[in-house]
Amino acid sequence: MKNQPSRRRFLKLSLAGVIGMTMGGRDLLKPAHAADLPQLAEDDPQAAALKYVHASPHSDKKCSNCALLQGNEGDEWRPCAIFPGKVVAAEGWCSAWAKKP
């Protein structure tokens, strides 16, 4: 009978798991801010493959009006879905550019 699960044991383990996730993994749950991320270099292999540049050669196509750009409007450097863990220039461009809907 000792190996049978009980409601009390289930609740204890569930509560311990919730506490462990919220207290122990606090840094894992903290979102990264754009200021904490490194800037994407134009010579980065992935950037070079997608022809990323800090200054867009197109007047109407910039990272700032791309559907893949994330972060706060108006920031000079913002995260991009194509380059995780790095920020791109709002005035930049790459071949993955997609018009905002």
UniProtKB/TrEMBL annotation:
A Pfam family: HIPIP
GO terms assigned for molecular function: 4 iron, 4 sulfur cluster binding; electron transfer activity; metal ion binding; peptidase activity
Keyword Hydrolase included in the entry's annotation: yes
InterPro entries: High_potential_FeS_prot, HIPIP_sf, TAT_signal, TAT_signal_bac_arc
Listed PROSITE patterns: HIPIP, TAT
Keywords tagged on the record: 4Fe-4S, Electron transport, Hydrolase, Iron, Iron-sulfur, Metal-binding, Protease, Signal, Transport
One record GO biological process: proteolysis
Domain High potential iron-sulfur proteins family profile: 34-101
Known role: Specific class of high-redox-potential 4Fe-4S ferredoxins. Functions in anaerobic electron transport in most purple and in some other photosynthetic bacteria and in at least one genus (Paracoccus) of halophilic, denitrifying bacteria.
Protein name as it appears in the record: Zn-dependent protease
Source organism phylogeny: Bacteria, Pseudomonadati, Pseudomonadota, Gammaproteobacteria, Vibrionales
